[in-house]
Prior knowledge:
The chain is mainly alpha-helical and 344 residues long. It is built from 14 helices and 10 strands. The structure holds iron/sulfur cluster (SF4).
Amino acid sequence: MKKEEWFTPDYYPEFSCKADKCRHTCCSTWRIPVSKKEYQKLITMECSEDLNRRVQSAFVIPETVNDDVYRYVSFNWLGQCPIQEKGLCSLHAEKGEGYLPKACKLYPRSLKKVGVHNVASCSSSCERIIEMLYERKDLHIISIEMEAENELFYEIGEEEGEQILLFQELIKDHTTSLCQSISDICKIINEKEFSKDYHEDIDPLPEGLKLLKRFIGQNNLFGQIAMEVYERYEKEKELYEKDKEGFEKRYPDWMPFFERMINNSMIYECFPFVDKRADRTSVYKGLCLTYGLLRLVCIGYCSLHNKKEDLIDATAALFHLIEHTAFYYNAPLICDNAAVFLKL
Ligand code: SF4
């Protein structure tokens, strides 16, 4: 394979997995797809008795089977991949990287061909990525030379490519608030619907709680976080204003941090050309929900948990939901007034 030019966020070359130091390893409660070829290689490989036992019980059949999604990695009683132990992958340790399913090998990276450009990005669902975004002041796109193969293709034209870059520039505009930058983007996508939705006389907090309630009980970290935040405000809504002040005082740089996380997610999702099923005119709703949920979850969770790690964990868990489900596709279906989330 020859080296090619790739566009990446500037932290990309520095990223390295925390492995057993990770508090919430990506192997937890994530439906990792395994192709037919990968599955057959794994179940027939020569290996130790212990690894063979783990591998034989590590897969479940998806609802719809095809050659690319032939099996999912199952979970043990702790909600973790049965092949890993104490945060370390036994398959990687014994057989090397060549045996890992593609999703495990790549995560949190994503390698896409967007129009004529190669774009390498990382998911904000990885706690190390969130830590890196927290530690830096800016997020820029750089060009690097590397040998890699694209896993996804986004067929977009020159004009659409320009729109992706314009939105990333708008989100980084420090002369306006993040909320204003998001409103400007939403207006470019669908001014009529956004403005109507934004000016509805609706209290955003009950809307946010209604949405959080949908995620409670999910067998993942975000389900637990959603429950704690929901329970805090469900009975005492007035606590939210006080918590808001406390959060902004404790994290005075919350806004540029949120900006970097949202920008990183836009790069990863190829916003606004996210989910191929999503309606381009309503895709702005996912962006409003992302901002509102970030505010609600961080403000609520950090009023109950005071370490910086808690902020990192809550945001990574939220982006796990946003970037590994059909979030943008579902946004208009699960919430009627997404734009009011900008008022949270
Ligand atoms: S979430 Fe990130 S840091 Fe943690 S194990 Fe996965 S890739 Fe490594």
